[in-house]
UniProtKB/TrEMBL annotation:
GO MF annotation: an example: ATP binding
Annotated localization: Cell membrane
The entry's keywords: Amino-acid transport, ATP-binding, Cell membrane, Membrane, Nucleotide-binding, Transport
InterPro entries for the chain: AAA+_ATPase (IPR003593), ABC_ATPase_HisP-typ (IPR030679), ABC_transporter-like_ATP-bd (IPR003439), ABC_transporter-like_CS (IPR017871), MetN_ABC_transporter-like (IPR050086), P-loop_NTPase (IPR027417)
Location, primary (coarse class): membrane
Residue ranges constituting the ABC transporter domain according to the UniProt record: 2-236
Name of the molecule in the record: Glutamine ABC transporter ATP-binding protein
Originating gene: glnQ
Keyword Transcription regulation: no
Amino acid sequence: MIKVRGLTKSFGKTNVLNGIDVDIAKGEVVVVIGPSGSGKSTFLRCLNLLEAPTGGEIEFEGKEITGSGVNINVLRQSMGMVFQQFNLFPHKTVMQNITLAPIGVRNTPREEAERIGIELLRRVGLEDKRDAYPNRLSGGQKQRVAIARALAMRPHVMLFDEPTSALDPEMVGEVLDVMKSLAREGMTMVIVTHEMGFAREVGDRLLFIDGGVIVEQGNPRDIFSAPQHPRTQEFLSKVL
Ligand code: ADP
Ligand code: MG
């Protein structure tokens, strides 16, 4: 579904990604871990062109998206993204947050968008919050709305950038549970996370990024029990 070759990204003189090669298959759950500042967010943001890569190639569903003539808006509709900081629209209700893009970008009729919205809210356990404003929700509830909002565009892949890092500990589980059920339903997902238990349980593959390259990758259970690279060993010794 996604093929990345020689991906580089620099900000001025700072080289953040230094040649990333990876293939992500349909239905695969890829978990990305690595130290702060190693380029994890930049990698994710390059996948849906929130950042323009400096070099290399990205193919998505068989089409090169790093060339010219790519419709970035259509691409982003196929890739849902969930951020650490939720990014809900504060002056819109939960239902308005969820239906804004389907109605405004896809021209979905309001009744249909709301019918799908209710379905999605049921899926994330928040049917009763459709008319609430974000400031009345807990962090975990906001993040579940953000996931429902991303799903409303029927994406083919979901990108998560530390979706539970801003949450109080008691709310982490409810968000991870929604992500687990998405994984079970076969959603293709790329997830940057510090939740090592979740990575081990749900990840089909783990990427350890350091210094803007994939230092090690493989089955999460294998890497957690026997990391091969000294940098992976050092990182895991601090976080496990
Ligand atoms: P991670 O998500 O692994 O913590 P990031 O991808 O956010 O790392 O950042 C990697 C490096 O790139 C950091 O040194 C960060 O300061 C730098 N960086 C990220 N975004 C920008 C930007 N828009 N402008 C300049 N530097 C950036
Ligand atoms: Mg980051």
